[in-house]
Each structure stands twice: as structure tokens, then as C-alpha cells.
Amino acid sequence: MAGLRAAQKQMTRKLLLDSALELFRTKGYAATTVDDIAAAAGTTRVTFYAYFPSRSDLMRALIGELNEKLERIDSPVHGSTARRLVEVVHDGSREAITEWLYGISGRWEAIRPYTVAAFEAAAVDPELRGLVNAWLEEAVSDIEEGLDQADRFPPGSRHLRGVLAMAQLDHVARTWTPGRWGADRVSVVDVLAESWTGLLSTGAPDVPEARRG
What pLDDT, on the 0 to 100 scale, is given for residue 179? Predict the structure, then answer.
């Protein structure tokens, strides 16, 4: 009986999360209420609060699900980490970068509802803004760690390179759909890999003397 109750509780929790994610996708985070989520899940606000103290706490749980989909694991150094990303940046080859980006691009459609909801939530909830910013910094730290391991580029530029690379990836992952910008997925990944290779693998081009400060 205890096992059955635990399974039922887990199922209810998952139903609330799935219902919330779908409502965030269709109505937006700000316009979705606790009552909306409870009704969509076929339960009550009392039940909702038995699982999540607030809508913000539910959003935190969704970010936890997002980490699972992105294969991010707990890290004692910076919250969470994607070890494969660290390895790819350490490798630094165009081939490794392209392979990793193409693999993750196959999950863009599945992760987009999470990331869009997270950014919408961050826009209206200061507490979640800090959480989302910290989550992005964890991904940036993976890139910085890979560059540290490779001892590539001046140390003072490595974090910024991670910021720029993740900003590109995040924007494309949240906004690109097939045919948008006149590009299919292979073309998008190829251009993104070219940009990442320049940021994370090759040296910066020489700057003409007249342009140097």
C-alpha cells in the first residue's frame, strides 16, 4: 500500500508539472494561475499546494526536469554540469563541436517549452530571475572549464567566450523552428558550429595596426 501511495503521489506531481508546462506554453507564465494549473490537472488548488508551495516552486521543479533532459548532473563546483560539453570544449575541434551541437539540436523542440517558460518567469519574478541567471552561468562555467583544461585563450577571456557561445545557442534553441531564417536544422547547426569554433577553438584574427588601441 505504501508503494502504491508513493506511486500515486508521484503521478499527481508529474500531472501538475505537465499541465503547468502546457499552460505556460499556450497562455504564458504570467497569465497562468495556480487555479488554472489545478483545473488542467483535474485536481484542486489545495492539492496543488500540497506539492508546491507556490507557482515559483513549480517552475523550479520544471527547471530540474530541464536539467535532466539536458543530461546535466549535480556539480560541487558550480551547481550542475554537462560533462560532455566540457569534454567537447576541451577537444575544441570543429568536428566535436558540430557533433555535440547537432545532438542537442535534436532536443530543441522538447526543451523549448521549458526554456521559454523559464525566461518568461524570470521577467516577472525576481527570485526566478536569479535562478535562471544562475542556471545559464552553470552552462557558461562548463565552457570556461573546458577552455581552462585546454589552456586555450587568455584566462581573462574564457568566461566571456562562454557567455557569447551560450547566448548564441540559447537564442537559436528558443526561437528557431524549421524553415525560419530560411535555414534547416543542418544549416543552423553548421553556422552555429562555425561561430563556436571561432570563439572556443581558434585564435582571434590579427588586428591591423591602425585599429589597435
Answer: 86
Q: 75 in helix, strand or coil?
A: strand
Q: Which residues pair with 73 in a beta bridge?
A: 81
What count of other Cβ atoms lies within 10 Å of the Cβ of residue 42? Answer: 11
pTM equals: 0.85
Residue 184: left (phi > 0), alpha (psi -120 to 50), or beta? beta
Q: Among 35, 41, 36, 2, which residue's Cα sits nearest to residue 18?
A: 41
pLDDT digits 0-9 by tens, 101-158: 999 999 999 999 999 999 999 999 988 999 899 999 999 999 999 999 999 999 999 9
CA distances from 80 to 32, 63, 94, 137, 200 (A): 28, 12, 25, 10, 21
DSSP H or E stretch at residue 21: helix 2-27
* Cell matching residue 194: 562555425
Task: Report the C-alpha gap between 75 and 144 in whole angstroms.
Answer: 14
88 contacts 149 by C-beta, under 8 angstroms: no
Burial of 118 (0-12, 13-18, 19+ CB in 10 A): buried
Round to whole Å and give the CA distance between 171 and 30. 21
- Confidence tier at 202 by pLDDT (50, 70, 90): confident
What is the mean predicted confidence (pLDDT) over 153-174?
Answer: 96
Task: Give, to the nearest 10 degrees, the angle between helix 108-124 and helix 2-27.
Answer: 80
